[in-house]
Design a protein that fits this description.
The structure is a single chain. It is built from 9 helices and 6 strands; from the N terminus they run H-H-H-H-E-E-E-E-E-E-H-H-H-H-H. It is an alpha+beta fold. It has 2 domains: 249 residues, no CATH class; 92 residues, no CATH class. The longest helix is centred in the N-terminal third of the chain and has 41 residues.
Length: 357
C-alpha cells in the first residue's frame, strides 16, 4: 500500500474507533437505563438486563458504524484541508483519486461487516431479544407481579390486581384479572388464583371461588357466572407484525409477496452499499477552502446525512405502501448518492488536470 493511502487510513481509523466506542457506550447506557427501570418495577428479570442491552447494541451497530465512518472521514479530510496537507498531496502530483482510494480501502471491509450484520446479525438479535423478553416479561410470572398494584402488560392490555401474593406457592389472594379482546373482554374476580403455567403462548390460571364477566363490545347484554373452581386459558401474547418482520430470515422475506416484507429485505441489502458510498461522499463534502476552520463544513455535512437517512426511511415506507415500485425501491437512495459522487469525482479530476497543466 502506498504512503498516502496508509496515512489517510490512519487519520480516519483513529477517530472512528473512538467514535464507535462513544456511540456504543451512549446507546448501551440508554438501553440499560430503560431496562433497569423495568427490572425495578418488576416487569423484567434483572438477570436479563445485560443480555437485552447486548442484543439492542448489536441491532444498533447497523446504524452506529456507518455514522462513525462518515463522521471520521469528515473530520480527517477537514483536518487535512485545514493543515494544507491536501494541497501538499496535490502539489506532489498525486491524483485526488488517491484520497478516494484510501477511504475505499477502509470502507469496503467495514461495509461488508455492516452488510453481514444487517442481513444476519440483526434478525438473529431481534429473535433472541424477543424470546428473552417474553421469558422475562410474562405478566403471569409471580416473581414479576406486585401486590396492591395494577400489573399491566402493555403488549396485550391484560391487567392483574392482587391484594396479597404468596410467592412460596405462587398463589394470588383476592385477585382481579382483566383480559381484553377484539370483540369481547373478560373480567375475573376470585378469592384465590394459582398460576399453573406462565407460558405467554398458552397461559393457564386456576381460579377458586369467584365470578366471571363476559363483556361483549357489540351487544348490550353481558354475561356473568359464579364458580367454585375454574381453569382458565388466557389469550396468548401475539407478537407485533413489525417485530416478526424484523426477526424474519432473508429466505422468508424473499419468499413473501407482502410489500412490507420486500421493503425490509431491501433495507438489509442496501445497508452495506450505502455505508461505502456515504463514506466516499464525505470526502468532497468535507473539503474546506484555505483559512477556513476544520469544522466549517459540519453543518452541510450533517444536513446531507440527515437527508440521506430520512430519504431511505421514506423510501422504505413507500415501498411498503406500494407507492414506490419495488425496483429501484430502496436502491433509489444509493443510486442518487452514486450519481452525486461521480459528479464530485469528475469535478475533482477536472480541477486536478487544470492545476497540473
Amino acid at each position: 500500500m502506498f504512503l498516502i493511502e496508509r496515512y489517510v487510513i490512519a487519520e480516519i481509523r483513529r477517530p472512528m474507533m473512538v467514535m464507535v466506542s462513544i456511540l456504543v457506550f451512549i446507546f448501551a447506557s440508554y438501553s440499560a437505563e430503560r431496562y433497569l427501570s423495568d427490572a425495578v418495577e418488576g416487569t423484567l428479570a434483572l438477570q436479563a438486563v445485560l443480555e437485552m442491552v447486548f442484543y439492542k447494541v448489536l441491532i444498533a451497530l447497523e446504524m452506529l458504524v456507518p455514522v462513525a465512518l462518515y463522521a471520521s472521514v469528515t473530520l480527517a479530510v477537514g483536518r487535512l484541508c485545514h493543515d494544507s496537507e491536501i494541497i501538499a498531496i496535490a502539489a506532489s502530483g498525486a491524483s485526488p483519486l488517491r484520497i478516494y482510494r484510501a477511504v475505499l480501502l477502509l470502507a469496503i471491509p467495514i461495509s461488508l461487516a455492516v452488510a453481514m450484520l444487517s442481513l444476519y446479525g440483526r434478525p438473529w438479535a431481534y429473535t433472541q431479544a424477543y424470546e428473552l423478553e417474553q421469558q422475562s416479561r410474562t405478566d403471569l410470572d409471580v416473581n414479576h407481579l406486585q401486590a396492591q398494584r395494577f400489573n399491566l402488560n402493555n403488549e396485550n392490555g391484560r391487567m392483574i390486581l392482587a391484594e396479597r401474593i404468596d410467592r412460596t406457592d405462587g398463589r394470588l389472594h383476592d385477585v382481579l384479572i382483566y383480559d381484553p379482546g377484539d370483540s369481547r373482554s373478560r373480567v375475573f374476580r376470585a378469592e384465590q388464583a394459582r398460576i399453573l403455567d406462565p407460558d405467554p403462548d398458552d397461559p393457564i390460571v386456576e381460579l377458586t371461588q369467584g365470578h366471571s364477566y363476559l363483556l361483549k363490545h357489540s351487544a348490550s347484554r353481558d354475561i356473568w357466572e359464579k364458580f367454585e373452581h375454574m381453569r382458565l386459558h388466557l389469550l396468548p401474547i401475539e407478537r407485533a407484525a413489525e417485530g416478526k418482520r424484523k426477526a424474519a430470515s432473508n429466505e422468508v422475506l424473499r419468499a413473501s409477496s407482502a410489500p412490507l416484507d420486500k421493503a425490509e429485505l431491501q433495507w438489509r441489502q442496501t445497508r452495506g452499499v450505502s455505508a461505502t458510498v456515504l463514506a466516499l461522499l464525505a470526502i468532497p463534502l468535507s473539503r474546506t477552502r484555505p483559512r477556513q476552520g476544520r469544522f466549517a463544513t459540519l453543518l452541510p455535512v450533517t444536513t446531507v446525512f440527515a437527508l440521506i437517512y430520512y430519504a431511505a426511511d421514506i423510501c422504505k415506507t413507500m415501498v411498503g405502501n406500494n407507492t414506490l415500485p419495488l425496483y429501484p425501491g430502496l436502491w433509489t437512495v444509493p443510486l442518487l448518492m452514486s450519481v452525486a459522487l461521480l459528479i464530485f469525482l469528475a469535478r475533482d479530476l477536472a480541477n486536478f488536470r487544470i492545476g497540473y497543466r
